[in-house]
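Lab meeting, action items carried over

1. Structure of the two-component assembly. Owner: GW. Status: complete.
Input record:
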Amino acid sequence: MIATHALGYDVAGRALLADCELAFTGGRVTAVLGPNGAGKSTLLRLLTGERRPSHGEVRVDGRALDTWTPAALARVRAVVTQFNHVAFPFTAAEIVALGRAPWRRSDTRAARAAAVEAALARLEVGHLAGRLYPTLSGGEQQRVAIARALAQLDWPRAGGARCLLLDEPSASLDLHHQHALMALLRELATQGVTVVVVLHDLNLALGYCDEVVLLREGRVAATGATAATLTPALVEAVYRVAAEQFETPDGGVFLVARRAVEYAA
Amino acid sequence: MTPADDHLLAAGAPAAAAIRARYLALPTRRMLVLAACFACALAAILANLALGPVVVPLASVLRILTGTHEAVGADGGVAASVVLDLRAPRVVQGLLVGAALAVSGAAFQGLFRNPLADPSLVGISAGAATGAVGYIVLGSALGSAFAPLAAIPRMAALPLAAIGGALAAAAALYRLGRRGSDLDIATLLLAGIAITALCLSASGLLIFVSDDEQLRELNFWSLGSLARAHWPVLLPALPWLLGATAWLVARAGVLNALALGEAEAWHLGYRVERVKLEVVALTATAVGTAVAIAGVIGFIGLIVPHLLRLAIGADNRYVLAGAAALGGALLLVADLLARTLVVPAELPIGILTSLLGGPFFLWLMQRQRCAPALP
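Predicted assembly:
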């Protein structure tokens, strides 16, 4: 669904991202991982078309990104960004209804209300519908923002060629909602949606993601099936922590970071 | 059952129904508030037509407006003339200028994502006034240099000069008022102060080289007044005022999306760069024309949208429509006070709105500092 070729992004002569050859396919959840400043958010901004690449290109559904009109693009991909500051007193339901903007020409009032209600309920924020968004807690705002993306994806009717990109969506969520969110991403993938999610928690990636893209200093350090890729050795090389891998009785794998590793200069 | 399920059940059906009822009640409330805004505007129109040094009874006003008024004796003719020739253009001007200022304010605040971004506070009005002053002082000199310029009628050229000044100020503000890709209200207000100071000194220079007659005319711009409302002044400005205001009201949907952020609005399928240019140009046009015919009138663009957001929430589809009605009504009420408080003289209307708006702005700032969640 989304593919990149020789993708790179420079700012003031410095490469924030270089030589990315990636493919994200429908029905799979891909985690984008890496230390601070590795280029995760930059990669996501290039994939959404928010920034134009300095090198290479991004293709969505086989077409170069800059041949899409913004409106057509908005009907096949939704984005959840990291900061969701809103200065005006919109209600949570109104924020979610903004997700229907790409469908405003075809939406009936009832269809819009149904999509908004379904999305609010799925993120367990139905009880916040009438509350003012700026008064919600960080985690509640995050869930409302994700509900907006669901409404934009036309969930639950969405199928086939759609993608959802999320930038550290679990950052302000409590444990329950982190796992509920990852389960939702899996559910979307089974419906054919391409999911790309920037994560910090390696174990959320190990538990829920099909593939990982591991970035280091603006380059792809490794990519592939999650459990096979995220080995303690690679994690140590990329994150500079000594990590141990454990297996759960049901065959799952998780990593425990034990200590920071300092390499001699 | 997990604690999470438990929590869901606790917040379950009855609470959800109550909240849903509140959410569903919002549209009704909005419609009531909007209706009240338009009722206010209508009442203000009638009051302004009827009241003044000569009080024309409401029944006569209605007869005069519908053309069924018969000039009974000398008095009837005077009443009709007062209503149609003196007060009607002033009412139309007040209504449109108020609507333009309030709608521009709401749109500008939406664009800059901050409820304090009022065009009169950030230098757009000052830019427009400088444009107008520049035309009055230098227009004839320029006209003798370029024959085609002299061919444009004065009343048509004045709004254009003011729009030009407003556009220049808006462009400067847009360049200076942002840090990186982020809009920062402190930077924005500081840039606005700098632009206002520059415009004032430019106007000061122009006043320095102007003659006596021009000077009297210039005084009008700094204080604002509807006293110069006559059909010949008003008509060339009407298309600009009406067009820009109506166009802004029609862009409510994209302003809502911009509230989420520029990147988010792009993700929702809007051409953000084009929209930003559009809103800046439309705001400059509306404010520039308003200043050209009524001078600098501050704070309408700050007070009206804020009151509406308090009453009906942030949805710009309602805020912008309501702002058009309430802005017109507020300016008409201010004008009624301006021309009746100190009869036979007249207070400049800009002084009245600033008297009301200054404390309001301070209150707003104070309130924001107390509630950081709603900056």
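2. GW to write a short summary for the group page. Key points so far: The longest helix of chain B spans residues 73-112. The interface with chain A takes residues 4, 8, 11, 15-16, 19-20, 22-23, 26, 110, 113-115, 253, 256-257, 259-261, 263-264, 266-271, 309, 313-315, 373-375 of chain B (CB under 8 Å).
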